[in-house]
Amino acid sequence: MKIIIIIPARFNSSRFPGKPLIKLLGKPMIQWVAELSSKVVTKKNVYVATENRKIFNTISNLGYKSIMTSKNCLTGTDRLAEVAKKINADIYINVQGDEPLIKPKDIKKIINAKIKYPNDIINGFTIVEKHEDVKSLNLPKVVFSKDKRLLYISRQTLPGYKEIKKKPDIYYKQVCIYAFNRQELLLYGKCKKKGKIESSEDIEIIRYLDLNKTIRMVQTSQGSLAVDEPKDVKKVEKALKKI
Q1: Contacts 24+ apart (CB under 8 A), 111-114
Q2: What are the tens digits of pLDDT across the range 73-131?
Q3: How far is residue 22 CA from its own chain's centroid?
Q4: CA 94 to CA 37: how far, in whole Å?
Q5: Alpha carbon of residue 218 to chain centroid
Q6: CA distance 156 to 44
Q7: Residue 197 is inside which H or E element, if any?
Q8: CA nearest to 176, candidates 220, 118, 135
Q9: CA distances (Å), 104 to each of 94, 101, 109, 116, 239, in order?
Q10: What does the domain layout of the chain look like in residue ranges?
């Protein structure tokens, strides 16, 4: 079974331009993610998908594979869809390029879930921790059925409660590790524009809900931190020092 990890890396992020190349403890963030990914599937099966020549060259100089994708890709998953047209694999893992604290064991959990449920999209989730602001729009919150099928995901606080006193002690957030097969990615890539809900929430996995695909959630470790904005760099570097 051929399993590859693809790290979508866009240079022109609206909130943080050049984010994949920002230095964390002296090393580009995209390098941190590539090194962690290579612990799961070996270096030769790790790819970076980007529209930017600087990112392409940086990754290539580090000995990793990089693929140039269109500047018109709507989302990171659209970049994976372009890669799927060029590279045939059994399982494609999407690891976000802005999560340098992601744990290899969690990537393995996502892979194992895809092997068990080959016809479901697989996505990670974890608990919103006490130091995090559950109302933050940078944290997509998830609700799912008893058998862990995604019901909805939103930047708003979910689930909602009619009576404030009944609010839960625990909320769950999305962890951006995904698993797809080739057909699922090609189906995604056929959509040339975002649907109404995907566009309003700005959450790419919602497109699969519009396509009536089952999304199965897998719980991952706590403690993952993403670099969404420049202010996140210091706290991520602090966490990297600890490990």
Answers
A1: 111/3, 111/40, 111/179, 113/179, 113/216, 113/218, 114/179, 114/180, 114/181
A2: 999 999 999 999 999 999 999 999 888 989 999 999 999 999 999 999 999 999 999 88
A3: 18
A4: 10
A5: 13
A6: 39
A7: helix 196-201
A8: 220
A9: 13, 9, 9, 19, 16
A10: 3-222
Residue length, the chain? 243
d(CA 14, CA 101): 22
Buried-state track 52-91, b at ≥16 Cβ within 10 A, e below 16: beebbebbeebebbbbebeeebbbbbbbbbbbbeebebeb
pLDDT digits (tens, 9 = 90+) for 131-170: 889 999 989 999 999 999 999 999 999 998 887 776 778 9
Kindly report the CATH number that applies to the domain delimited by 3-222. 3.90.550.10
CA distances, 230 to each of 10, 133, 151, 185, 241 (Å): 15, 17, 32, 31, 18
Burial class (CB in 10 A: 0-12, 13-18, 19+), 165: exposed
Contact yes or no for 180/173 (Cβ under 8 A): no
Using CA atoms, how far residue 163 sits from 133, 160, 218, in Å, is 20, 9, 29
Rounded CA gap, 214 and 184, in Å? 11
User: Is this prediction's pTM over 0.85?
Assistant: yes
Q: In this structure, what token pair is assigned to residue 84?
A: 């799927």
Instruction: Check if the beta carbon of residue 124 is closer than 8 Å to that of residue 176.
Output: yes
- Give the Cα separation of 11 and 193 in Å (integer): 21
Q: How far apart are CA 19 and CA 83, in angstroms?
A: 21
